[in-house]
Design goal:
Radius of gyration: 17 Å
Largest sheet: 7 strands, mixed
Low-confidence stretches: 221-232
Number of helices: 7
Mean pLDDT: 92
Number of strands: 12
CATH architecture of the largest domain: 2-Layer Sandwich
Oligomer: single chain
Shape: globular
Number of domains: 2
Length: 232
Amino acid sequence: MLILAIDTATDRLGLALRRDDTTLAELHLDLGRKHAEKILVGLDGLLADLGVAPRDLGGIAVSLGPGSFTGLRIGLAFAKGLALATGAQLVGIPTLTVLAAGARPWVGLVVPCLDARRSEVYYSAYHLTSGGVEHLDPDFKAGAPADVAARCRLLGPRVLLVGTGAEAVHGVAGSDAAVAPREFAFPRASVLAALGAEKLRQGEGDALDPLEPLYVRRPDAVIRRDPLSTRA
């Protein structure tokens, strides 16, 4: 099965194509949240390079967030439209899960942290093994670096922080956690494709209409309109 991965959760656009257990092509562009302008151009380039057409897609894996509100809406809307047009199966994967799985060859406790602005990060805890990734928390949260540091202390020693918010958390957590290299700070589309392929193999595709982004908190524009709100 040919699978397309689409990640628009951060300032970086990620696209990848995977067949069976092999990543065929991967593209990452630092766009400053101009995903709508480049996503179709990037996809056309990947497909052309491999000599395949959109109709050849069997599955589409899309990053659901948390992350950029605008980016997530663009990515999911594009993925739904493409799935509808091609008949490809759609599967959504949380962005923090993609970050955690991308921390290999690390094995152990991982806390992915994405910059959420307003001095907060999106975070959750995982246990990463050589064979998979286990989500240890019931949900995804937005909190101050001190909140994430407290979660790390509860997890125990040897916690790896990964993501664009990892350095901020490490500044508070100190020796209670290590920081993954900068190259692991953004979700990788090839990892998203692999996670999506596994879910589709297990028959866990998603219906188009009910699938929604994982916002975690309200958009800043909504908060500014609510004078009684101090935090999402």
